[in-house]
Design goal:
heterodimer, A: alpha+beta, 5-stranded antiparallel sheet, 3 helices, 5 strands, B: alpha/beta, 5-stranded mixed sheet, about 30% strand
């Protein structure tokens, strides 16, 4: 029987492989609720948050690091991703959808569409994602 | 990332294997550029062996669609999983090119 509360906390160098490493660890610890669409949605959210932190937060700096906390408790999965970069002005984006003809700029829209809730910290270098699921 | 390219009468069918995500999409991006540069106008991407795609992968499809459209061609995506179809629908990708499922 799984514990009522599971938590994973990882700090990794800011490389593109960090998202894949964290997803593998989340799956290995069986933190993802079974059945579609949870596995896909949670992997997508973790990947987007970590990749955003690596690409936009740390912007390729060698000293860049990404902290990722994933916590599962009573039908909720909480994801916190923070980088040591300068942050960005998430308030300036508003709630507009991405331009469908432009290749980039879909990460935040994925938070809006696939997470139950999301929130950036004041500095803009950390994002909290909440994903709710049934049956626990 | 492994991928096969199958020439057909109208262009080419590209079959990537694995996740199309930020840390693995470079090879697919390079191959797509090669195909467009070689004159392929009708390109089909077969997602039979792809389970996951993130915003980098979506951006790659949009970029391929844009490049093909400029030269009068078109992109078609086939054999997408149920999860990927839902992602494409949610992100309004079907407004640009034809997408079909497994």
């Amino acid at each position: 029987m799984k514990p009522l509360r599971q938590e994973l906390r990882l700090a990794l160098p800011a490389t593109l492989a960090a998202a894949t490493d964290i997803v593998a660890e989340v799956k290995q610890r069986q933190m993802v609720p079974p059945g579609p669409p949870h596995s896909f949605c949670i992997e997508l959210l973790v990947r987007e948050a970590v990749t955003n932190a690596v690409v936009h937060g740390c912007n390729g700096t060698e000293s860049g690091t990404v902290l990722c906390v994933v916590r599962r408790q009573q039908g909720r999965l909480f994801i916190w991703v923070e980088d040591n970069g300068p942050g960005f002005d998430w308030r300036a984006r508003g709630s507009r959808s991405s331009d469908p003809a432009i290749p980039g700029g879909r990460g935040i829209e994925i938070f809006e569409k696939f997470a139950t809730r999301h929130r950036f910290n004041a500095k803009g270098n950390g994002v909290a994602l909440l994903y709710r699921f049934e049956g626990e | 990332m492994e991928m096969n390219t199958i020439p057909d009468s109208a262009g080419a069918i590209l079959c990537p294997s694995g996740d199309v995500v930020a840390d693995s999409e470079t090879e697919l991006r390079r191959r797509l550029r090669e195909l467009v540069a070689s004159g392929v106008r009708k390109l089909t991407i077969d997602l039979s062996n792809v389970q996951m795609m993130d915003s980098a992968g979506l951006g790659l499809l949009i970029a391929a669609h844009n490049s093909l459209s400029k030269s009068g061609g078109e992109l078609t995506v086939i054999h997408a999983t149920h999860d990927l179809l839902e992602l494409f629908r949610t992100m309004r990708m079907h407004q640009h090119f034809s997408i079909s499922g497994e």
